[in-house]
Design a protein that fits this description.
Blueprint lengths: L9 E6 L5 H14 L4 E6 L12 H6 L3 E3 L27 E6 L3 H8 L2 H6 L4 E7 L9 H15 L5 E4 L9 H18 L3 E6 L1 H4 L8 E3 L12
Helix pairs in contact: 3-5, 5-6
Length: about 230
């Protein structure tokens, strides 16, 4: 499990609230765009109105990333609607398409709407479940396995890769990350998932003795009150 994860054309990121899936989605989108790729980021989160990719629309646009999101996203209207334009990602040429999906089985149901299209590009798609073992509902193997099963069933896809993104923001310690890795590896074995990777801030990852490939990510969803 120490080989680097190769990202295909379609990347689907799921995970519970606070898992860090949106951080990873933003980092991947901006990294690929920085390499000159044509990138589309689909904010498919119909569950969480906060800490979502759409909040960084300006930064993404400046980087050349095409952003698609549910109708009424970032408004007070509580009617999640998926615009027809999202279907275009399967038809319009693009080097990379990243889906940031709602963090539970209810959110994954939105992804299930596109199951027929994903089946046609299955070999070009990587479905990832992002896990933060310091967050409620994903602290134990049992919790993670339950969440993974519900998300996969409602989203109508199989999980290809687990992402250990265990952290407590600025209070993250290397032993937290390595303990999270052990838990996620055990879950992967029980689920039959062949790929596991670890993500986190570079300074912390450098102090960890990891068994999985690591990818440093920059925190981009820090609330303004945390920077004051």
């Amino acid at each position: 499990m120490n080989e680097a994860i190769a990202f295909p054309r379609f990347i689907v990121l799921t995970g519970n609230y606070g898992s860090g899936k949106t951080e990873l989605a933003l980092n991947l989108a901006l990294d690929f765009a920085g390499q000159g790729e044509k990138v589309t980021l689909v904010d498919l989160d119909i569950v969480n109105p906060y800490f979502r990719s759409a909040e960084k629309a300006g930064e993404l646009e400046q980087a050349g990333v095409r952003l698609l999101m549910p109708t009424f996203a970032l408004t007070t209207v509580d009617i999640p609607a998926l615009p027809a334009e999202i279907q275009s990602v399967f038809e319009v040429p693009s080097d990379r398409v990243i889906f940031d999906v709602g963090g539970d089985d209810t959110g994954a149901a939105a992804l299930g709407r596109y199951a027929p299209s994903f089946r046609k590009v299955r070999e070009e798609t990587l479905f990832l479940l992002v896990v933060n073992c310091m967050r409620p509902l994903t602290e134990t193997e049992e919790d993670i396995l339950d969440l993974a099963g519900r998300i996969a069933a409602r989203g109508r896809f199989g999980i290809d890769c687990l992402v250990n993104n265990t952290n407590l923001a600025d209070r993250t310690a290397p032993d937290m990350v390595t303990a999270g890795e052990q838990t996620v590896l055990k879950c992967a074995e029980k689920m039959g998932v062949p790929r596991v990777m670890t993500t986190g801030e570079a300074g912390v990852l450098q102090k960890c003795a990891l068994r999985t490939p690591a990818r440093a990510i920059e925190r981009r969803m820090v609330p303004e009150w945390m920077t004051e």
